[in-house]
Amino acid sequence: MLIIENLSKTFNPGSINEKLALDNITLSLQPGEFLSIIGGNGAGKSTLLNCISGVYPMDQGRIILDSMDISYHPEYQRSCYIGRVFQDPMLGTAFDMTIEENLAIAYARGKPRGLKPGIRKSEAKLFREHLARLELGLEDRMKQKVGLLSGGQRQALTLLMATIVKPKLLLLDEHTAALDPAIAQRVLQLTREIVSRYHLTTIMVTHNMKAALEYGNRTIMMHEGRIILDLQEAEREEITVEKLVQLFGLKSGAELDNDRLLLI
Ligand SMILES: Nc1ncnc2c1ncn2[C@@H]1O[C@H](COP(=O)(O)OP(=O)(O)OP(=O)(O)O)[C@@H](O)[C@H]1O
């Protein structure tokens, strides 16, 4: 489904600030696989998502998505088949537009533009059904502006917008990091429900080691632009956060420098 081959990315090459952010990454995901990524500060997690979604061009490598070589597709083109949710609840939604207008924009993704303005009755009904599944009462607030929503409500809506047209790949970049723990938990549960309902191939970067092991079916750990650990199936089921911290030390030869990871 997703194949990444020998992906490398260096920022500011040839300058004093040269930084090898991704060092020959090779990774493949099966359809419906839900991968969590953890790693210390500057490990290359966000850069990996940015290269996959076309925000940064890569220096070397290939990205194949659903048998299509997207390595040189521009970001706007990839956004038709890659859904993304960011850490900041302010990103991903238009705050001065209503909930249903935001959903209508997301629903039009990848479809030819029609001339008909407004939202059809059938679309409003569909949006209501999707919103009701979030169990946040948003289905009764469809005409309200998104700016009135809390951070958690916004992230749930962004998640819905990223998936209302089934993406070939869903990228979640620490999408619960800015939320209160209880709300973060709810958004993670929603993530799990949506990913499993639509059988979405998903990559979730998280700073929460517990969540990384609890959600999805595979976990990788990155360090200095490389994948140093890849846990799947039975091996992953047996692992604890403490063991993961130990493994990090063993595989990287370094102390885990991300305080946020250790806090969990
Ligand atoms: N636009 C950029 N220009 C220059 N250097 C960058 C840029 N983006 C990232 N880097 C550098 O690349 C390295 C990898 O950064 P990246 O943001 O991918 O790490 P991360 O694993 O997401 O870290 P964190 O958990 O701290 O967010 C870091 O050393 C970072 O400073």
Automatic annotation (TrEMBL):
One of its GO terms (molecular function) is transmembrane transporter activity. The keyword Oxidoreductase does not apply. Keywords: ATP-binding, Nucleotide-binding. InterPro entries: AAA+_ATPase, ABC_transporter-like_ATP-bd, ABC_transporter-like_CS, ABC_transpr_LolD-like, P-loop_NTPase. Residues 2-249 form the ABC transporter domain. One of its GO terms (cellular component) is plasma membrane. PANTHER family: ABC TRANSPORTER DOMAIN-CONTAINING PROTEIN (PTHR24220:SF692), IMPORT ATP-BINDING PROTEIN (PTHR24220). This is ABC transporter domain-containing protein. It comes from Syntrophomonas wolfei subsp. wolfei (strain DSM 2245B / Goettingen).
